[in-house]
Amino acid sequence: MRIAVITDIHGNAAALDAMLEDAAARGLRSIICLGDIASGAGWPRETVEMLQATGIPCIRGNHDRWISEHEPATMGKQDRLAYDELSAEQRGWLMDLPTSMQPAPGVLAVHGSPGSDMQNLIEEVVAERLRPAPMAVLRERLGVDGMGARVVLCGHSHRSGMVQVPGGPLVVNPGSLGLPGFRISREPAHRQEAGTPHARYAVLHLDGDAVQVELLAIAYDWEAAARRAHDVGFNAAWPHVIRTGLLPESA
């Protein structure tokens, strides 16, 4: 059994379209999305429509939740763009998505951690950067449900990686499909950069007791995505990180 895993699209329909083409070329028929679908400097409505049209099972991310829970006047720019461009029915669809799913026996899929859509699972903030979390911290975040799984799929951090927990699951984060870097000013303040603009996703291979994972980084028209960010009024940092995978100060 093979499962393609995407997460943190953030309205980047160009990246999603390229991923769907790549998955089809690889013969991947099962795809799941781990959330943070529409909010971003891109195409919120088109992204939701693509996922709905393909019937890809999705989990609700924190940004998917925020565009229903927060008042529009208090929203950050990426959430406000999604709120304005999505219909009430589409916003309701995002809000009603499950917070976890089991796409295969022994596989638990979440957005952040099993207990929170705002908590990175395999990373912690050190000196305003994401670094691997200590194993004791990871076990605590996994909780009973996570530790009892064979594989845990997570997103939220935009940082691709895998950790095999001794006596516990293989934890896999595909990295962000549509937003390769960001800066968070709220505490704990931190930044994340993928280092390249590629769209990232993972393929989980399940064959009896054997588990294999491919972490993929595919090319797409990131110049079109960067132009879209500029055209919808986002400052220079957004187009820059989309076309380079780096924040302006790093480049």
From TrEMBL:
GO terms for molecular function: phosphatase activity. Gene3D superfamilies: 3.60.21.10. Residues 1-183 form the Calcineurin-like phosphoesterase domain. GO terms for cellular component: cytoplasm. InterPro entries: Ap4A_hydrolase, Calcineurin-like_PHP_lpxH, Metallo-depent_PP-like, Pesterase_MJ0912. It comes from the Bacteria. Pfam families: Metallophos_2. Belongs to the metallophosphoesterase superfamily. YfcE family. This is Metallophosphoesterase.
